[in-house]
Amino acid sequence: FAELHATVAGLPLASSRVLPGIVLRRDFAAYCPMGGDLRAVLVTEPLRTPLPAPGVEFVVESEGQYQASLCWISRRTEALMKHLQSNNVKLLLSSVKQEEVVIYYAKLYGVSVVESLSSEEIALIREITGVSPYAPSGDNIHREITETAVATFCQPLLLGSKRCVHIGFTSVCAFQPHCLILCGPVDGVNEQHAAALQGAFTMLQQLFNRVD
């Protein structure tokens, strides 16, 4: 329930509504307008390769070597984003904050990015879509990307003064998510309404449990 409702203070209760899909309460880190169905990937790690790999000592003997390493990382990041584009991936959903070079190349190659998703939001998206996080494997970043979800739409949504992301996924199960937008004059009223609705849904779940 926590991931499937959002509250907006300062609006009348009559403005409350139910939206298909899910609402992520953060703005796009990069937004490239898109229409129709689109492919999306989940990531749980930074896409910019660090200079030293875990457990490896990285020795730089000159400024030239250091700059050359940074150039290699930038080219690899660009190649990865270009590979996403060539696989028709238009949306990147990340549980970590990506570095500026990733955002730059995402905009360049038409890939929208939403970052800093919570573990609960990642789990919800995985339940809806059935996909696992995508992880570029070492130096082989050009393998076929199979861990993709299908989104029927992905667009900005303004809730009061807060910019959010509204996404509709093609579900692989009977669960068809909808998000409840609760409006009210102040936060306290919204919290009361949310608690009452959550209690009502819990009661309905218990009422309709199968009894053998």
Question: Average pLDDT value?
Answer: 87
* Beginning-to-end CA distance, first to last residue: 27 Å
Helix tally?
A: 4
CATH topology of the largest domain: GroEL
Task: Tell me briefly what this model is.
This protein is α/β, with parallel strands linked by helices. Helix content is 31%, strand content 25%.
Characterise the protein shown here:
It comes from Rynchops niger. InterPro entries: BBS10, GroEL-like_apical_dom_sf, TCP-1-like_intermed_sf. One of its GO terms (biological process) is chaperone-mediated protein complex assembly. This is BBS10 protein. The protein is an alpha/beta fold. The chain folds into two domains: 1-20 and 177-211, no CATH class; 22-175, 3-Layer(bba) Sandwich (GroEL). The chain is 31% helix and 25% strand. The protein has helices at residues 63-86, 100-108, 119-129, 187-207, and strands at residues 5-9, 17-20, 22-24, 38-43, 89-94, 112-114, 149-159, 162-169, 178-184. The strands form two sheets. A six-stranded mixed β-sheet has the order 3-8-7-4-5-6, with helices on both faces. A three-stranded mixed β-sheet has the order 1-9-2. Helix 1 packs across helix 2 (100-108). The longest helix is centred in the middle third of the chain and has 24 residues, at 63-86. The model has no long low-confidence stretch (mean pLDDT 87).
SSE topology sketch:
Blueprint: E1 5-9, E2 17-20, E3 22-24, E4 38-43, H1 63-86, E5 89-94, H2 100-108, E6 112-114, H3 119-129, E7 149-159, E8 162-169, E9 178-184, H4 187-207
Parallel strand pairs: 1-9, 4-5, 5-6
Antiparallel strand pairs: 2-9, 3-8, 4-7, 7-8
Protein name: BBS10 protein
InterPro entries: BBS10 (IPR042619), GroEL-like_apical_dom_sf (IPR027409), TCP-1-like_intermed_sf (IPR027410)
